[in-house]
Amino acid sequence: MGSGTRRRHRWAALLGATALAVTGGGALACPASAEPQQVEFATHCVPPPIAGIPPIDGTTTARITVDNATPKVGDTVTVTYTVVKPAASNPVDIALPADIMTPTGKVTLGGVQTGAVTVAGPKKNDPVPGKGAFPSFSMTGTFTVTTPGAITLSPGDYNIHTSYLLELDTPCTVTNPPAPVSETVTATDGGQTNNRAISLGTASGKPGDSVTVTGTNFTPGAAVTLAGRAGAAETADKGTTTANAQGAISGTLTVNDKATTGVVAYEGSAWSDSKGAGPAAYVVIEDNTPLPEGSQKVNSSVKAGTLSMTQAGDTVELAAVDYGKGGFSRGSLQTVTVKDFRGGPAGWSLTGKVTDFAGPGGAKIEAAKLGWTPVCATKTGSPSTCQPGSPGSVGSAGATLASTPNGAQTGGEFTVDARLSLNVPAFTPPGAYSGVLTLTLT
């Protein structure tokens, strides 16, 4: 065995790294004999860099269960994501101690209601023997039913955080999302609809860390309270933000209270089922492992930032067309720069919508006549990859300009552009026409 290999093994043994060894190749659904289905899916896991081990492609076996398979619209459903067999095992001969693993993850919703449910588990595990398989673990979270009909639940990405001398993460992502459906709930119309929803930039952190909270379908302009929850009770963690004109929110909550197990957002100063969203699962991670004699623990931290965008300008001049001929009036969008420094698993979406183009004497060109061909570029080293929206009409209903997907690690810097073309009818009255293109980043 070479010196480099011995060094890597010593590091892995010292740190108790959640390094990986393949337990099997990728596979498709493998339903169990009873509901909910136990499924298998191909998984790509990235061990901590300090372990010196390359990424591993293996198979995860998992199942999803719910506390209510026939909810009404407006009900809150508790979801449990159990990883029966992780796509990894302990690759070193040194045993790992009990209660060092804290799992977090996502459950993917499909059918009549889409999105992702943040789930988290306790810091609890049996000891892992040298070269032994990592144990099964469970994570829980909740979502609010917004639409009647069948809602499917599939296992999503998950992360194993270990606290053993060092704080280390092993993110595992679904190779071909979505994973097979494990559970289905059938919702009925309960006569009360609350479509507010929130998601977290990360599902865990140390005391004092900040978590990014984003949400949709709040009352435009409303003051929104962000709060920690422990069961039905609020904790000492509080923050505020304001819903924008589209009802979206984006704010940060500093979590100091070790009792916090979830995050909620609600309009006003007091929780209301009709004007709130959540809780989204969150775990406060503490490292209580005693240090060996003669050791020193060295701590550092990476502070989460924000999701933001800037524009190169606020005016686009399209080329003129001739009266009687009409045709396409073309130009280029002012370049948009998106910076995602939040950390965590959440991607982003940049959308746009345009008003009718007003001209002289009440003349107008309909908003649907404006089309675009989006392009985007990703700065080297960014964890996420920017995806341009589809070419087509923008219109008053709006369209996607660019986006990045959710993932085990996201973020980076991106530039977004688009070729614009306004299809001007042949005998549109001469004069200047103007419309307002509004871009929204969520």
From TrEMBL:
Residues 1-29 form the signal peptide. Residues 380-408 are annotated as: Disordered. Residues 388-399 have a biased composition (Low complexity). Keywords: Signal. It comes from the Bacteria. This is Beta-xylosidase. It comes from Streptomyces liliifuscus.
